Amino acid sequence: MARTYMASERPDHTLQHTALVHEAYLRLVDSEMPVNNRAHFFAVASQAMRRILVDYARARKTKKRGSGETIRVEDEAQLPPASGIGPDILALHEVLERLAGHDQRQAQIVEMHYFSGLTAEEISEVVGVTSRTVERDLVSAKAWIGNALENS
Fold first, then answer.
1. What are the boundaries of each domain within the chain?
2. Which residues are CB-neighbours of 62 under 8 A, at least 6 positions away?
3. 74-98 residue pLDDT tens
4. Element (H, E) at 38
């Protein structure tokens, strides 16, 4: 799951997938949340990892903005090129939060499928719907998210 999360991050990301797993483990242990089955564990773990990455991205964005410090750049050619694979994690987080306001189940299904790699059958166990409903919700949510990312 951590590799899946980290695959969408930029190549020079300083947070490694093992650190992400360790941080998620610590958060899960501290929360003492009861876990019903394997699929439920992966759903909770995927949510923890997503939140860690969002917190990390927010902290990096704050640091990048300088928090009051002024840095003078002599030549723009010296700046490294912006790199990144996939959508910005903060933009994706915001869109998923908006989707949750629109349809909580779809947001939960997207998170479990894309961030932890659960199958429709595993997700259906956690959510309590058929796997076919999960598949329909994924198609609908994907279209909704794509539209939201285009319009933001």
1. 2-66+86-150
2. none
3. 333 333 333 333 457 788 889 999 9
4. helix 38-64
